[in-house]
């Protein structure tokens, strides 16, 4: 049986660009770690803090599913397929880059930093038509329970992407327990503790710690203090085009 993969918050890569402070779970830009290139189709998990009035200038992407989850503050989004909008805390944004898309993300506030998760997944097929979506999440839907915020199905809860992946959020009160059964047998589970602390798989995890679980179909976790959790249920096998 494969061991679970524990990534502590203080072991992540870190880059300080002045206007941007970014923690990298997996190899990204100047952070190179051959043991942390990806977890299944999860390629990037960046924890970014953008200074007031600053941001990412227009740049291209292709053939990647890109998910942004603001944790505090706002981001101003513009892209080459005609979207221009503000992404706020409590929302989720996705881009299917497909055949190619250019976009920019800026913090529109002059005095408040913006913190968000930037997540990339390898898509299950190449060269799809680029698309963009964002929705507002209801925090009441995740109080001591899982709230699905992303799936492969346009008719299901949350946004959808070109990958057999499901994301869920939960806000747990201290001592509350949650169970989760993965959606696909060959998927793995990646849990990222946004705030607080939990106990799972005989392991204590604190703020920004993570665990990758490969060979269990069901998990149980408990909050050792009030906790906010992101769970990613994702394919472990890379798509054929990467083999």
Automatic annotation (TrEMBL):
Residues 149-234 form the Quercetin 2,3-dioxygenase C-terminal cupin domain. Binds 1 Fe cation per subunit. The keyword Glycoprotein does not apply. It comes from the Bacteria. The keyword Ion transport does not apply. Its cofactor is Fe cation. Residues 14-121 form the Pirin N-terminal domain. One of its GO terms (molecular function) is metal ion binding. Fe cation binds at residues 59, 61, 103, 105. It holds the Pfam family Pirin. InterPro entries: Pirin, Pirin_N_dom, Quercetinase_C, RmlC-like_jellyroll, RmlC_Cupin_sf. Keywords: Iron, Metal-binding. Belongs to the pirin family. This is Pirin family protein. It comes from Myroides pelagicus.
